[in-house]
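Note to self: the last two entries modelled the partners one at a time, which told us nothing about the interface. This time every component goes in together.
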Amino acid sequence: MPNFAIGVDLGGTNLRVAAVDESGELMKKITTPVKPLRHSELIIATMCADIRELTRTYESAGRLLGIGIAIPGIIDMAAGVLRESPNLPGWQNVPVREEVERLLGTTVVLDNDANAAVLGEYWIGSGREVESMFMFTLGTGVGGGLILNGSIWRGMTGMAGEPGHMTFLPDGPPCACGNNGCVEQFAGASAILRKARQCTTGPGARELMAELRKIPDFSGQDLFSLAAQGNKAAAGIFEEAGRALGTSVAAMINLLDLPLYVIGGGVAGGWDIFSPFIFEEVERRSFVYRSQSPATRAKITHALLGGDGGLFGAARLAMLAAAEGTNRALQNDDVASAAT
Amino acid sequence: MPNFAIGVDLGGTNLRVAAVDESGELMKKITTPVKPLRHSELIIATMCADIRELTRTYESAGRLLGIGIAIPGIIDMAAGVLRESPNLPGWQNVPVREEVERLLGTTVVLDNDANAAVLGEYWIGSGREVESMFMFTLGTGVGGGLILNGSIWRGMTGMAGEPGHMTFLPDGPPCACGNNGCVEQFAGASAILRKARQCTTGPGARELMAELRKIPDFSGQDLFSLAAQGNKAAAGIFEEAGRALGTSVAAMINLLDLPLYVIGGGVAGGWDIFSPFIFEEVERRSFVYRSQSPATRAKITHALLGGDGGLFGAARLAMLAAAEGTNRALQNDDVASAAT
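The predicted structure of the combined assembly is written out below.
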C-alpha cells in the first residue's frame, strides 16, 4: 500500500473526507450532509471522526503524510482561523485549525476551497502539463485560485484570486462587495438565478417563468437544461456569463500570459452553452492571445475533477507541507552534521 | 571605484546610455536624439560607440558586470529580436542582440522598456521595500511590468504585463489592438490628446480649443497644465484616465493582492490631477483593498525615477544576469570539485 494523505472539503452542502494516495488515487471517501449537523462544533467533531476512521483503515499499510482541510470563505492563514464564510452561516472567527489539531492531537493544513480546487486540478486534472494556471470556481459566487510556477499565489494578505470581483461593467448591477458590475453578478449562480426570476419579457420568458413555477428549488442546472433545449431567455443569461468570464480571461492573458485558464465549480456544467462566448470575447479582447499560434496559445477549458478538485487539492496541500517539512528537517540535519 | 554595468534605454525620442554602479548610483549618462540618426543600423552603431566610451572610462577602476539594453515593443526574448515597435518605426524583426554583440564582441542582455522600468523602480525607486509590484508605464500607449517575488514575470510567451489592453468599458472606443474600451483608450497620451482635440462643447471646451490652436505640438503636459489651472474639459479627460487606471488597479488587487502598484511614464506627470480618481475607484471596486487596514494595505503611488527607470533597470538586468552566471559557474565548480 502506498503512503497517503487525508483531504477534507467542507462545503455549504456536504462535508467530504477522503484518503488519497501519493499518485492521486482516491482510496475512500466519506460524505456527510452538513445541514443536519447544524453547529460548527458538531461539524468539526464529525470531520475528526471521519479522519480518524480513514487513518485507522489505511495506516497499517502506508504512512499518513498529513491532513489538509479546504473550507470556503476568508481565512486568516497565519492563525488558521475562518474569519467568515458566505456558505457556512454562523461560522465567524472559528479557530478551525486549532480545534481540529486539539481533537486529533496532530497538525493539519488549512486553506480556502478555491485554492485547494486549483491545486487539485494542477496536480491531477486539467493542469497536469503546465507550471502556471488560473482557475475560476463558479458556485453561488465566483471564486478562483492562481498557481504560478507550481505554487499557489496567495498575495500579500492571502486574498489573491478573487476574479468574481473584477469589474466587468463599470456601471453594472450592484454587488454585495460594494462594487458595481462585478463578474460575479453575471457568472455566479445567485446572480444567474436572480436574472432568471427577473426575466418576464422577451423570447422564451414565458416558458422560463412556467419552469420556475413548476420546479421547486429551481437551480442553475435546471436553467442550463432549459438553455440546452433552446430556450432563448435561459441561453441569453448564459451568454452574458460567458462574455463576463471571457472579458476577465482576456484581461488575465494580457496581464499574466499564463498557459491555462480553467472554469470549474457547479455552474461550469453550463460549459457547452457559455464557452463559445468566452472564446469570442478572448479572441476580441486579447491581442496577446491572438498573437500566439493556435497550437501554442493559452488553453481555456473546463475543470476535469468536477466537485472533487478541492478534496484532492486538500490532500495534496498536506503532502506538500509534509515534503516541505522533510526538506527543512534534512537541511537542519545538514547544518547539524556540518557542525559536528 | 565600484563595479558597474552599462544600461541602455532606446526610446522613440532619445537613445540614452549610462554607466551605473552596483549601488544604483548613476556615474555618467550619454543622451543622443534618435530622429537625426534615422536608420536602425546607425542607431545601433551609435549605441555601441557610447557603450565603448563609458566602458573605457570606468573599466580601469571597477569591473564591468555587463550590458543591458531596454527597447520598446514586442521582443522575441529567446532570439533577442525586436519583432516590431510602435515607437521605432521601421524596426521590424531587427536582431538587436546579435548586432550589438557582433559590434562589441561581448554578450548583452535585452528586454523591453516596461520590464526594465519596473525593475529599476523595484531596485532603487518606489519598490525598494517590497518583493512584488506592478508598474504602469503611461506613454503614447499604456504598458506595464510585473515583479513577483523579486523577478520579472514575463509569462508563457514573454507578453505578460499589458495592462493597457485590459478592458475598461466593454463597448468603449475602438483600440488599435482590435478590442474596444481598452485602458489605453483612456490613459494613454495618444487617446488623451485625441479626446482633447475632439472636445468641442461643454465647460472649458472653448478655452481648450484656443490652447490647442495656440500651442504647436500640444502635449499631455500642456493639457495637464490647463487642468491644473482649473480647466474643466482638461480635468475631465484626466478624471476618465484616473477612473480607468483605478478600475484596473482594483482588478489587480482582487486578482493578485500585491503590496504595490506604481504609475510611471510621461503621462504620470498628471498624477495630482488624476490620482484622486484612482483611489476613488480602488476604494469602490476592491473589497480586498478595503478589508486591509490603511497602515498595511496595498500602496498606490507614482514612480520615483522619472524617465530614468528604464535606464537603471537595463543596468540592473545586466547585473542580475552576471550574478546568475556566476552562481551557475560556482555550482559547476561544486560539481567539478565533487567529482575530483
